[in-house]
Structures are given as C-alpha cells and as structure tokens.
C-alpha cells in the first residue's frame, strides 16, 4: 500500500507555514520531525482533561493518567516487538537511555583493563557516555572504523571483539552518512563471543522499523521527537535478564519499593529505572505518534522515503561540484553533501532564505568529519511528508547558491 502524500501532509499543521515569504520545505527531520495533529491533540487532551501525577494518587484522574502511561508502554512494546513491558523504560530520549546503560552496566560489569567497542560513525551521544564510563572504570574505548563509502568494516570486528570487551554499542543508521548497518549480523557476531550489544535506534526506527526479538539486541534506544512524537521522551529497551542485573541509574520517587535510612529497596522493572515524576504526557504523545505511523504503515513509509532518497541523490549528483558524503548501498533517507568549496553554513543560510530548512555542521559526529578531513556538511533529511516537488525546490535553490558563489 502506498502512502497518500496529500492526506499525510494535511496531518501536519506546520507544513502549511511560510518562512521568509516562501512555503516551508522542511528537510531537517534527522534533527527533529514535525508532529501530526493526532499527537498535538493527544497532548492537549492530556493537559486539559486528564492531568494528574501517575502511580501515586488515590483519585480518578491519577488512575486514568497512570492507565494511559502504562497503555503507552504497551504500544511501544508492540511496536518494537519486545517480550514484555518490563523491558520498556521511559527516558528523556536516546541520550538519556544510552547514559543509563553506560552508567549502570559500567557499575556492574566493567572493571580496569576491560574494553568497550563503538563504531567510528556514532553520534556523540553513543560515544561520550562510554568515554565517561571508561574513564571512571579504567577501561579502554575501541573503535570499529568505516570505509570511504561510509560502510562499517565488519571484517575488522572479529579482531576487535577480544575477551576483554564487555559491551559493543553501534548505531542502526548513521545520522550524518545515512548508512544502515547490518545490526542483526553484528549482534550475532558479538553474541558468539558472549558480548552484549546496544543499538542506537534514533535514526533507524522511524525509517525502517525494528524487531528487537529478531535482531536479538540486548539494549535499544530511541527518541520520541524524531519519530513524530514530542520532545523530552524516549525509550530504553533492555532484555529483562540485563535490566534485572543492572543497578539503578538515578534515585528518587517511584523507583523504590521501601525506604529507610538504613536501607532502600528498589521497585520492580521497569520502574526501577524511572526515578521522579515521569513524563507521562510525553509518553502518551509518543504512543500516539506510533499509532499514527502504524496507521500509514512502516513499509509504506520506508518505500516512500526510499523513492525520495533515490530521486534526491540523482538530482543532487547532477549538480557539478556537489559531493555526497555517505555512499553506502543501504541508506536511510538523508544526504550529507558539500557544494564545491562553499562553506556549509553559507549554503544553509541561503537555503533558509528560500524557505528550505536543512542542517549544517558536524551533526554531532565529529569523528565522521575527521574521517573525511572536512569541518562539516550540509544535511538534508527526509520524513514521511516530504515530496519530490520539494526536492526540485532544493535543487533549484542549490543552483542559485552555486551561481551566487561563482
Ligand atoms: N543518536 C543518533 C544517531 C542521533 O541522530 C541522535 C540525535 N541527533 C541521538 C543519538 C541523540 O538523540 P537525542 O538528542 O534525542 O537524545
């Protein structure tokens, strides 16, 4: 079933805005995606009609609010095909989820002399938390490189996965190169050496979906705001066998069973990892975003975005002097590029004046830029509501940028 683009676009109020007098072309979905009315309405309804703190009150609204929060957990469990809602921890986002694992896993399982492996294409949020943990524990961070097309050197992984390695963390898809990594294969290889794997799903889940049982990863992290849901909410999936063993990350209300000054015991999963008042309204909004994507169909979304990627790649490559960074055969719908020696920021500024929103810079992946010896790129990233007409506008605008600098 293909996607009805006019109907989809009508679901996103912001898309009818003009910017600098031009109709908005929003191509910064990799940074954050726009929200459909359904999500905005769900958030509004929660605030207007149901707002009450969860898991505490003896009153009607608190019960209702708690029920909605736990329903949202079930929606997420179904969406990623986790075994149980005990494995779904709400966090503030991908970054918070990875920090949780880096801290708690590090506390329990990492000691001086151990190793942690990440890839060269990770977002800073899948590098720095591991560095912090390695520094604390006296462990070493090792790096799986990628080749000049932006494809991970899986051939080098067996040698990297020594018996000192405690955990491997890798992204499902790169936010600056677009590469889709063979995560199932990576997990199988790591597991053959008893090494658990964390997958950063921030750029994967809404483009190609995920089945955590099928890929068999140990942890999976993603953010609500990149998948048409609200900001400030995200998810950590963790296999129960790991979450049971990890110590809490943060302490406070809701994560305890009993507290005395002598000793505190912790709540059962998943609340053990949800200290303080949860973002229950964000969770409800995230569940609505997932229902929205499901109503369109992840396969239909993937097919539409693949067409956009193919079309945009061909059009951009037809511009003399334009170089694409990230030429892997399997990519999510984003393109990083440079136009001659024009500074990416200048390109971005001019595109903005023409109503086209893109991202410029390192995209929180400085090691990727270092690999190519560049200071940054222009990145266009497509969502389910983008069109080939918008790509034509991007193409025309890039020709204007070129003219202005030549
Ligand atoms: N990982 C990847 C691959 C990302 O693209 C991002 C967001 N740019 C993050 C992690 C961090 O997500 P958040 O800022 O929502 O925590």
TrEMBL record:
GO terms for biological process: cysteine metabolic process. Its cofactor is pyridoxal 5'-phosphate. The keyword Metal-binding does not apply. SUPFAM superfamilies: PLP-dependent transferases. Residues 25-394 form the Aminotransferase class V domain. One of its GO terms (molecular function) is lyase activity. It is an enzyme of class 2 (transferase). Keywords: Lyase, Pyridoxal phosphate, Transferase. It catalyses: (sulfur carrier)-H + L-cysteine = (sulfur carrier)-SH + L-alanine. InterPro entries: Aminotrans_V_dom (IPR000192), Aminotrans_V_PyrdxlP_BS (IPR020578), Cys_dSase_SufS (IPR010970), Cysteine_dSase (IPR016454), PyrdxlP-dep_Trfase (IPR015424), PyrdxlP-dep_Trfase_major (IPR015421), PyrdxlP-dep_Trfase_small (IPR015422). Its EC number is 2.8.1.7. The keyword Calcium does not apply. Catalyzes the removal of elemental sulfur and selenium atoms from L-cysteine, L-cystine, L-selenocysteine, and L-selenocystine to produce L-alanine. NCBIfam families: sufS (TIGR01979). Belongs to the class-V pyridoxal-phosphate-dependent aminotransferase family. Csd subfamily. This is Cysteine desulfurase. It comes from Williamwhitmania taraxaci.
């Amino acid at each position: 079933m293909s996607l009805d683009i006019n109907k989809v676009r009508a679901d996103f109020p912001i898309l009818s805005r003009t910017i600098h007098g031009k109709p908005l072309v929003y191509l910064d979905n990799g940074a954050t995606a726009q929200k459909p009315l359904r999500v905005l309405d769900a958030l509004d309804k929660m605030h207007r009609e149901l707002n009450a703190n969860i898991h505490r009150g003896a009153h009607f609204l608190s019960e209702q609010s708690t029920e909605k929060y736990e329903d949202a957990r079930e929606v997420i469990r179904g969406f990623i095909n986790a075994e149980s809602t005990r494995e779904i921890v709400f966090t503030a986002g991908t970054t918070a989820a990875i920090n949780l694992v880096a801290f708690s896993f590090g506390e329990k399982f990492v000691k001086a002399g151990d190793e942690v492996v990440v890839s060269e294409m990770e977002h800073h949020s899948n590098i720095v938390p591991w560095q912090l943990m390695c520094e604390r524990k006296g462990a070493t961070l090792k790096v799986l490189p990628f080749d000049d097309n932006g494809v991970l050197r899986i051939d080098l992984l067996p040698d990297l996965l020594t018996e000192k390695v405690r955990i491997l963390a890798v992204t499902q898809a790169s936010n600056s190169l677009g590469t889709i990594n063979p995560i199932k294969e990576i997990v199988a290889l790591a597991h053959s050496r008893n090494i658990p794997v964390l997958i950063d799903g921030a750029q994967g889940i809404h483009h190609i979906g995920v089945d955590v049982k099928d890929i068999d990863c140990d942890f999976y992290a993603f953010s609500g705001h990149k998948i048409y849901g609200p900001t400030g909410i995200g998810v950590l999936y963790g296999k129960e066998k790991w979450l049971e063993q990890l110590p809490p990350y943060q302490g406070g209300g809701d994560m305890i069973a009993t507290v005395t000054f002598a000793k505190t015991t912790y709540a059962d999963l998943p609340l053990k990892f949800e200290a303080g008042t949860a973002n229950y309204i964000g969770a409800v909004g995230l569940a609505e975003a997932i229902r929205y994507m499901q109503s369109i169909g992840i396969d239909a979304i993937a097919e539409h975005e693949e067409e956009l990627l193919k079309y945009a790649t061909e059009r951009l490559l037809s511009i003399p002097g334009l170089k694409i960074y990230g030429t892997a055969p399997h990519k999510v719908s984003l393109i990083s590029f440079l136009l001659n020696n024009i500074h990416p920021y200048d390109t971005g500024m001019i595109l903005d004046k023409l109503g086209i929103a893109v991202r410029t810079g390192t995209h929180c992946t400085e090691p990727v830029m270092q690999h190519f010896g560049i200071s940054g790129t222009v990145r266009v990233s497509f969502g389910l509501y983008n069109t080939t007409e918008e790509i034509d506008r991007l193409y025309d605008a890039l020709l204007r940028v070129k003219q202005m600098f030549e």
